[in-house]
User: Fold Bifunctional protein FolD from Streptomyces himalayensis subsp. aureolus.
Amino acid sequence: MSPTHTAQLMDGTGLARRIVEATATNAAEISQRTGVAPCLATVLVGDDPASVTYVRMKRARCAKAGIRSRHIGLPASTTTAELVDTLTALSHDPQVHGILLQHPVGPGIDERAAFEAIAPEKDVDGVTMHSFGTMSFGLPGFVSCTPGGIMRLLDEYGVELTGKQAVVVGRSPILGKPVGMLLLAQDATVTYCHSRTADLPAIVREADIVVAAVGRPRLIHGQDVKPGAVVIDAGYNPGNVGDVDFDTARTRARLITPVPGGVGPMTIAVLLAQTVEAAAQQCHGLVG
Amino acid sequence: MSPTHTAQLMDGTGLARRIVEATATNAAEISQRTGVAPCLATVLVGDDPASVTYVRMKRARCAKAGIRSRHIGLPASTTTAELVDTLTALSHDPQVHGILLQHPVGPGIDERAAFEAIAPEKDVDGVTMHSFGTMSFGLPGFVSCTPGGIMRLLDEYGVELTGKQAVVVGRSPILGKPVGMLLLAQDATVTYCHSRTADLPAIVREADIVVAAVGRPRLIHGQDVKPGAVVIDAGYNPGNVGDVDFDTARTRARLITPVPGGVGPMTIAVLLAQTVEAAAQQCHGLVG
Assistant:
């Protein structure tokens, strides 16, 4: 890399906009054909301000794309059994095509039990073990939204994955683990790193593709980025800071996602796209 | 390593025997307490000689451990729907505690659809997406038998996993992928390699723990084994040859599984142990 090298930015904002536009067209087509607009149920337990804001934002995006949303707000005192009942009822409700349980659901609730109450065909947020299985085994199904967004970005920028060394930093059930499985399904050699990894910089230095997904500001030092690598920063920390030291990393990487405007906007775009896809599957054969 | 160094062998035969002995004791206790012996249903489609032999061997081992088995042999012409029906019926049969579908099931059948018809609480072979999810997320559940056997061997020999570099060669749904997830759950840094990996020897050279699980004779060269590494050979090829060049690898490794007598015997031991565990869970509260 020359001293003046600057990586190309991976424009998540633009790609997300195009996905949402296509999604709105599909939603309108389904509404017209069947008389039923795609519908996302959003479930929120408690009143954590950040979660309230996220859900409101997602519902506003739905509305703009011609997707109905039905909001179920539950008190913070909700038990696991009550939440499971709510999600089971939504799973059986033919008016609802996709289900989003805003998480974290807070202490005292078994989040995994709640996720598993979502029917796989309505799991448009890709949080169930079934969806993790389909992602892992390369089968049709919904993907976790942020991992799905990352894969679309890689595809959009023509990043070759076969035989490449991909390093995923982070191993959460809806981000690190599934994105590693999606990369593996596309024939990358995948290394999972995490808080107990002995020498993270040494592993990052070998990576053709780095996916940072831990939520620790500037955990990945720019000087550890291999020249010409592709850097995906799925971290989002206070002050618009990612998990990667962007300023240094961009002098070495070939492609890099900015924070914000990289991975972030992709998550909702995939959620909307999958909701309409779910509606299309469930309304298949319906004629309005 | 000195020129005369020889790795300690990881004795799967001995460990498997001890697991089966403990399993027989547990099976007898359940039989006595509830009046019901643990029961494994074995399902075989077609008459592939190797599969017939495997099923016969598993049933003989069950009998020796005080586990009943019920065999369902289906013709090679069986459809996916018929196989799913059979497995669904066994999933609902209170007399059956564990279900083993001998695989590969042969062409013309959707193996994944068949696996998914097995109830998670009877998935003692660890083949469902639900079991893959519980393995991946560190939740209680049954494990795939060979990966489970590998983890027991590592535990038996006191192999520290936290922060170690583990390299898994192979990515099948019931061997490579789950063993990687089990290693990750125990805080290893895990790299998945496979047929498209660009420079396998270079990656193996960095590994503290190598798990070879592809079924290609001597794919892993002994001289690529890091001195002091732990080598697990889950390959089994004609002529009792593993995926690792054993003779050279043992001059460098600290611990190594022989082939045969390493990983092989562990698979059935875990199957039997999980069958009795399933029976214990399902008979909980029953008093004979």
Observations:
- The first strand of chain A starts at residue 8 and ends at 9.
